[in-house]
Amino acid sequence: MMIPCSEKCLYEKDGLCDLKTVIPQSSTPTPDCPYFTERESKNKS
């Protein structure tokens, strides 16, 4: 199943959700995705 993902989510890859298994819902879900987990910035100072 292909699920579009335009959020800055840990599971986003090439504009699609790359989550392969069901996991517990995140503590910060978005209205469209209960599994949203914000991706950490690669440019940490």
From TrEMBL:
Residues 25-45 are annotated as: Disordered. It comes from the Bacteria. This is Hydroxymyristoyl-ACP dehydratase. It comes from Tissierella pigra.
